[in-house]
Design goal:
16 helices, Ferritin, Rossmann fold, nine-stranded mixed β-sheet
Length: about 475
């Protein structure tokens, strides 16, 4: 049975359980089981590599000793074991000798729950996992990437507003253009399920890692923070699947909850890759962690301020942001001013509609900047639809090949020899300053040019009012003439 068929059959079983209410709980239930199965498969690998390997999980609670036997515990016995032994012990796991793996497992289970009420249905689910998935097989591990994306799509459909799965082509393009190097500290301050981090890991590993020491250097250079428990659990699992054996640098926390002034030189990083939540508001008081000049409860704006602060001089960032972050009065103006004065915002890629469908119809942009020098010019590139495509959807998703045109135009690491064309145009920092730091600049080569410049909009409004008055006067004249003829 294929992995996708296995997952579908598991979900069908869970729907029969009265304790599992909706997609979000089904996914939460599925993920902690996957984690234990994946971790057990990884432990088989660890045991082959090190004769003295000792599991941080007590023997009775290891997947192989309570779940792998398809004729083993079931019904009330299984339910009692999971609720009263497995979860309490793992939530309060005390790692022996400071074993970092134990801390990872405890972190995973701190906010995990067993929602199932039927031990018999739980046994059926476990048997499907035992039968259908072997994460030590290269093929299954590869296919799990596709499965992972399906879980993420289901998670979005479960109604988690403001959290959008970033398509793999966008993630890969951003990583390729930022080009992280071995030994650089790489951070995603709103890492979700780890898409940017795993992409960076695979890219650096493939291109630059040749020795065991280099692999360890890579593993020590990956950092992530995720606020919500389920995406954090998914991220930890994702890290382990991608060879990060002890992902202690991926924390369950809210990056914005720490006062900005408390982030010091040791917290600075070389590379930031992220798609921070947007369209939402932070809880009361979070804005007080930021200087008065930048205080807002809008999540995307706060993350942009944080990213600028966390980059080292010379550090590089690629960030997904909605159109609404690019323009606005007051705080948004001051944030954009800070961005242009402290960083070289060299490129904004304006994505086509539908990239994040069906999660959101909000138009999005990819901002690329380097900290330490002010912006002189901003290049804009409007990403076009491929031939024959009018919008992205499930049957016609975005493909990584679409970015080959941008890559050819990019001009390498130095971004040299860029030229304007029907998709690319350059705007000076002085012009942007004259627009009150409005970065929502439409393609001047587009026949459907739409602007948000207040002066332009007011002038358009005045002209519209003039035409309305003229039309009204014409109608009055026609009506007066008709009445006088009577």
């Amino acid at each position: 049975m294929s992995i996708s068929s296995t997952i579908k059959s598991i979900q069908d079983i869970m729907r029969k359980d009265v304790g599992v209410d909706g997609d979000a709980q089904r996914i939460g239930q599925l993920v902690w089981m996957f984690f234990l199965k994946i971790y057990d498969d990884k432990e088989t690998e660890y045991e082959l590599l090190a004769d003295d390997y000792r599991s941080p999980i007590p023997d009775a609670l290891r997947w192989r000793n309570w779940a792998a036997d398809q004729e083993g515990m079931t019904g009330d016995e299984l339910l009692d074991f999971v609720n009263n032994q497995l979860f309490p012990t793992l939530k309060d796991l005390q790692p022996a000798g400071g074993d970092k793996r134990g801390y990872v497992i405890r972190g995973v289970f701190e906010d995990a729950y067993n929602y199932m009420k039927s031990g018999h249905l739980m046994r059926q689910v476990i048997n499907k996992i035992v039968d259908g998935l072997d994460f030590n097989k290269a093929q299954d591990r590869h296919l799990f990437g596709d499965l992972y994306e399906q879980i993420l799509r289901d998670l979005q459909n479960a109604g988690n507003a403001g959290e959008y799965y970033t398509p793999r082509p966008v993630t890969q393009f951003m990583v390729d253009m930022v080009a992280p190097q071995l030994g650089e500290k790489i951070l995603d301050p709103a890492c979700g399920t780890g898409g940017f981090l795993t992409c960076a890991i695979e890219t650096v590993r493939k291109q630059q890692v040749k020795t065991v020491d280099q692999e360890q250097l890579l593993q020590d250079s990956i950092f992530g923070v995720e606020k919500k428990p389920l995406p954090h659990l998914l991220c930890t699992t994702n890290m382990i699947l991608h060879g990060i054996d002890v992902p202690t640098n991926v924390r369950h926390d809210n990056t914005l909850s720490r006062p900005l002034r408390d982030y010091g030189p040791r917290d600075r990083v070389d590379v930031i890759l992220t798609n921070p939540p947007f369209g939402g508001m932070e809880e009361d008081g979070i804005e007080n962690n930021f200087p008065a000049t930048f205080r807002t409860r809008e999540t995307a704006d706060l993350f942009l301020v944080l990213i600028m602060h966390l980059l080292k001089d010379g550090g590089r960032a690629a960030v997904v942001l909605p159109d609404g972050t690019l323009f606005g009065e007051g705080i948004k103006t001051r944030i954009n001013e800070q961005l242009l004065e402290t960083c070289n915002l060299h490129t904004i890629v304006r994505l086509s509609n539908g990239v994040f469908a069906p999660y959101t119809g909000i138009k999005t942009n990819l901002l690329f900047f380097t900290k330490g020098q002010p912006t002189r010019d901003v290049w804009f590139y409007e990403h076009p639809y491929p031939a024959g495509v009018k919008n992205y959807n499930k049957t016609k998703p975005m493909r990584i090949e679409e970015f080959e045109v941008e890559k050819a135009w990019w001009g390498g690491v130095e971004r040299s020899d860029r030229v304007e064309n029907e998709y690319a145009w350059k705007v000076s920092a002085d012009d942007i300053k004259g627009r009150n730091y409005n970065l929502d600049i439409k393609n001047p080569h587009s026949p459907d040019l739409v602007v948000h410049d207040p002066d332009v909009l007011l002038a358009d409004y005045a002209r519209l009012q003039e035409r309305i008055a003229e039309t009204r006067n014409q109608l009055k004249a026609v009506l007066a003439a008709a009445l006088s003829s009577d």
